[in-house]
Amino acid sequence: MNRLILHLGAIFILIQTGLGFTQSTDSTADSLKTYLNERFYDPVDVDVQKLVQQKRVKNIILFIGDGMGVTHVFSGLTANKGKLNLLNLKTIGFSKTQPATRYVTDSAAGGTALSTGVKTYNGAIAVDVDSLPVKTILELAEKEGLATGLVATSSITHATPASFIAHQKSRSLDFEIAKDFMNTDIDVFIGGGQRFFDKREDGFNLIHDLENKGYQVLSDLDAAFDVETGPLAVFTAEESNLRASKRNGMLPKATELAIKILSQNEKGFFLMVEGSQIDWGAHGSNTGYVIEDMLDLDLCIGKALEFAVKEGETLIILTADHETGGMAVEDGSMQTGYVKADYTTGGHTGVMVPVFAAGPKAELFMGIYENTAIFYKIKKALGIN
Ligand code: MG
Ligand code: ZN
User: Fold this and answer.
1) If you measure from the C-alpha of residue 367 to the centroid of ligand 1, how many angstroms do you get, rounded to a whole number?
2) Which domains does the chain have, with CATH numbers?
3) Is the predicted pLDDT of residue 255 greater than 60, yes or no?
4) How far apart are CA 279 and CA 152, in angstroms?
5) How far is it, in rounded angstroms, from Cα 245 to Cα 295?
6) Cα–ligand 1 centroid distance for 158 (angstroms)
7) Interhelix angle 70-79/287-311, nearest 10 degrees
8) Among 46, 136, 248, 356, which one has the highest count of C-beta atoms within 10 angstroms of its own C-beta?
């Protein structure tokens, strides 16, 4: 098995093959080297005390790191030399991720637990064990008059974002999931997956439908910053976006843009932002991939913190749907950012995952609880019955 060894201080990357070390000439490794060199960052400078003083929750920003266990967080923390934005989310809990019918969850059942408060079977998109639709927190928030948004680096129809907006018996029904977007009035969504909207076997062009519903539909995220009001859909890829080192800050930019538009709603907003590919890196036992997508998600948390401190009344939550890879950190250096990690499985594990929160009502997220409790905690924080 090949292991990716990262040394982010002196910045050199070696591929360990068997017993020997060889300098990598792999272009992926070179781009990672460049990426990390450019992207080493200081966390945003915010007075976190200001978040704690707030009482009312007007806005919720829920970050989901797909596959993000404690080890993935710690790898990112080590790689960025002991500094992360998420250290500002000082209220900590743990979420137990077991689905209804098994011990180890997939992202569909994991997402559905977070979005609906219901434990279901693996593959289910916001439907219960009988495949019956269950209202999601995004739908409930919309009904309360909140603006709503979804941001992901995967296809926007992929299991995690889909669990917040669609109701399908299987995660593989991307075309059906895309159609479910038409049943809501979601204000902003940004991610991949354009082909599920405009290259459909049923002949429908959902992008035309979105435009008829009043959406501005764009594929250039930088140009989308000129958009002042929603509803807005931005498709940044035909299907998935590339990994963090190759997508030009797509996720932090999308987070900033979504917050800009959603925050115009006087009643507040609910936004879910997914770091979709922490999971993909871990499935591939690719520590560089895990770390760059972990840090990319952390940059998004920086955007949320800046907004929350400025505007107030914003609850920020960061959690995961499950752990991926049975990842272990075997060696590292907080001084240089060196991380050496290994994996016990190419799949998911059943271990509980961390929950970090900051802002009004953050204390709701202390303790150890089922993943479904997160749905109820968000509802309670928003005062939805
Ligand atoms: Mg996902
Ligand atoms: Zn996975």
Assistant:
1) 24
2) 2-382 (3.40.720.10)
3) yes
4) 13
5) 10
6) 6
7) 90
8) 136
Please list, residue by residue across 235-254, b when 16 or more beta carbons sit within 10 angstroms of its beta carbon and e when fewer do. bbbeebbebbbebeebbbbb
Please give the distance, rounded to the nearest whole angstrom, from the Cα atom of residue 21 to the centre of ligand 1. Answer: 34
Tell me the pLDDT of the chain averaged across its residues: 91
Omega prior to 231 cis, within 30 of 0: yes
Query: Is residue 172 annotated as a catalytic residue, yes or no?
Result: no
CA of residue 283 to ligand 2 center, whole Å:
6
312-361 pLDDT per residue, tens: 999 999 999 999 999 999 999 998 888 999 999 999 999 999 999 999 99
Contact present, 275 and 251 (Cβ < 8 Å): yes
Quote the tokens at residue 328: 């272990």
DSSP 8-state assignment for residue 43: P
Write the burial class of residue 374 (CB in 10 Å: 0-12 exposed, 13-18 middle, 19+ buried). Answer: buried
Q: How far is the CA of 112 from the centre of ligand 2 (A)?
A: 15
Lookup: tokens for 22: 């060889």
Query: For the chain, what's the residue count?
Result: 385
Ligand nearest to the CA of 158: 1
Hey, is 372 helix, strand or coil? helix
Report CA-CA distances (Å) from 111 to 167, 238, 316: 12, 23, 17
Query: Which residues surround the ion ligand 1 when the cut-off is CB under 5 Å?
Result: 66, 107, 160, 276
CA–CA distance, 72 with 347 (Å, rounded to integer): 15
Beta pairing partners, 353: 95
- Ligand nearest the Cα atom of residue 349: 2
Buried b / exposed e over 8-26, threshold 16 CB at 10 Å, is beeeebbbeeeeeeeebee
- How much distance in Å is there from the Cα of 161 to the middle of ligand 2? 14
CB count, 10 Å around CB of 134? 18
Sign, CA dihedral 61-66-69-73, equals negative
Catalytic residue among 107, 115, 154, 163: 107
Q: Which ligand is nearest to the CA of 159?
A: 1
